[in-house]
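Fold this sequence, please.
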Amino acid sequence: MNLEVRPAKIRVLIVDDEPLARSNLSVLLRLDPEIEIVSECDSGTVALTEIRRARPDLLFLDVQMPECDGFDVLEVLGGDLPPAVVFVTAHDQYALRAFEAGALDYLLKPFDNARFGRALGRAKERIARTGNVPPILERLAVKSAGQISFVKISEIDWIEAADYYSCLHVGAKTHLLRRSMSDLDQDLDHDIFCRIHRSTIVKLDRVRSLKLNENGEYEVVLNDGARLRLSRRYRKQLQSRLGVRGFHT
């Protein structure tokens, strides 16, 4: 007897404090046979519990919610984010902050079916990549002054966000790359690179020390003397990668 093996559905969680907004997303998502809605939440606090319970593949997340907003949700989750996060909001001023926080896309209300379809398509591609072993990335192509140059991954010291670009620091040189921090964080080898702030990624073997500053916050000091802020959100992650114990909180 031949049995049909069906691919697992993409598990989606919707977070929005407005019932109509949740309903609109739900209607669009239910049109896609590859989607399974695992939960709908009306607050960020409830969402945190549901995300940890349901472990969704895709999160549609409102920005402005009382008590615990969309950015608070991502801050608390830290490195335990779903593979794809799409912000949904009526306010365009949060777009840059959303991408820096790791969002894959930013849906501005009201959006049409075509725009929603593009966001969902990008999410499906991201989720599909997370299910496969990614190829080892050895270099990045940088376009500048009418030419394309290649930067070896092994030569990068650290990376910082620069609006919609990323700035690669390679020794005394810098290279501007038209890719978001979230995309780079997804593609880089996490045994070699670690995100330490929403706008900063470091190469672990370039880290010389961790220093507590006068404000009681840790800074990451690199071999070349660069001092980079360490966010509380990524502190435990860096601690684990470096094999450090006894961090003050």
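Helices lie at 19-30, 44-54, 70-77, 95-100, 113-130, 181-187, 235-242. The radius of gyration is 20 Å.
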